[in-house]
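Hi V.,

You were right to ask for the full record rather than a summary. Here it is.
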Amino acid sequence: MAIRLGSTVINCADIEVMTHFWSEALDLTPASRAPGDDFRVLHGDHGTVSLQVAATPVTARDQMHLDLYTDDQATEVRRLVLLGARHVRHVEDDPDDDYVVLADPEGNEFCVCAKPTDIAERPAPRP
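Predicted structure:
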């Protein structure tokens, strides 16, 4: 399969509180603890959780979403749209962070990320 789950992303208001909680809860190591982070990847032996500071108050509907990684973003987006997904927007401002936001048939948003390398397999730097 040319597409794979990369990370579950949790929208949050306080990235420091959430980093502490999820790191301890799931034995994860943050890739960064830089002041001012608005996105942080937490790595572990059995998976990855990403935290993202929400620009608006978090609601139950948009609290979590999936990031799907692929080496062929355009093909996978077309395939998913044919399966019933709806195109929401394409964010390509940063060449290292190119993703397409889609919504599943019930309106749940997820991202199809152009990631040639699976971040979940990269070793996490130690703080």
